[in-house]
Each structure stands twice: as C-alpha cells, then as structure tokens.
Amino acid sequence: MTDKQDLVQLTRSIIDSNRYMTLGPADESGLSWVSPVWYAAAGYLEFFWVSSPDARHSRNLAGRPQLAIVIFDSHRAGDWNALYMSAVAEELLDVDDGIAVFSRTSEAQGMRSWTREDVRSPARHRLYRATASEHFVLDPRDQRVPVSVD
Question: Residue 133 is part of which domain span?
C-alpha cells in the first residue's frame, strides 16, 4: 500500500475507527510521559480530549506544547495499523466549539454529553486540543511515509 490515495484513506480510517490516542508530551527538561486519552476528532487535523489540569501529561503540555501522538488498533495484526503525528496542544479557554465536537462524538458513541460547565473551573476536567502538523505511517521496512490529509 504505497499509493498516496490509499495512504490518505488508511490515515482517515485509523482516525475514524479508533477511540483512543496516545499522547507523548515531554516536560520542560525533555522527559516524556505517555498517556492514552479518549478523543474526538474535528476532521483529520484537530483532536479534542478532556483531562485534569493536574494530570502529568496536562502539566507537561502547559510547559511545552509540542507532542507526539499515536493512534493504533491493537486488535489488528500486520502492517499499517498505526498512525503517527506531530502536533501542538493547548488547554482551550474558549471551549464552545471544541466542547460541541467532543460532546457530539461522545453521544454518538453512547456516552454522556458534555457542556462548557464540565470543562471550566471549578470542574475537575479541562478541554484540550491538539493540532497536527504532520501525519505519517511506517512502511514494512519501518521507514516513515508522510501522509497529507488535506
């Protein structure tokens, strides 16, 4: 599978068919910490999740917003089952658009709805957004294959 259109379809399929992504932010000294989070995607460049601002990955992002993201299906054997991304993340202060995306996806998957009050102080969670700047998969020789999703 090396055709550009096949890779775009694969990338979109991975994002559309999975529920969790793994965040890989690093703290200010460069020590990384990985965490799985349930996500809602807005297209193929923006990813939303909720977390406690006290969680280690949230604290890392507050000091260093660059991160790596991996989305993979652990039930699928073989090649081409993981998508890697470079991104920049932030805690959203203006939450209305993002929480609408997050809540719609949550409800579509049989979970609860979310409101702005659920992610604003004094609530336990905050809403975060990662904006991907690079998508890639690995070929059978473990070489990076960039994928343009726009």
Answer: 4-147
